[in-house]
Amino acid sequence: MWLGLVNDADATADITAWIERGGPGLADPPGILDLYGFTSSRRVRGQEEG
Fold first, then answer.
1. For the chain, does the N or the C end have fewer beta carbons within 10 angstroms?
2. Distance (Å, whole) CA 14 – CA 44
């Protein structure tokens, strides 16, 4: 999951709580994080897969 614009205390608290529960792949993210999510560019996704 890619997140952006998480420069406020509430977003940080939501991310921290998610990570404490296990984080990506282990715990579902809080729904509020959908507001911060975005899809990476094809170029970046290609580098991740490579």
1. C
2. 25
Q: How far is CA 3 from CA 7, 21, in A?
A: 11, 18
Residue 12, C-beta contacts closer than 8 angstroms, at least 6 positions apart: 6
- 12-38 residue pLDDT tens: 999 999 999 999 899 998 888 888 888
Give residue 27's pLDDT: 95
* Cβ partners under 8 Å of residue 29, min gap 6: 1, 18
18: nearest Cα among 8, 10, 42, 40: 10
Specify whether the CB–CB gap between 3 and 37 falls below 8 A.
yes
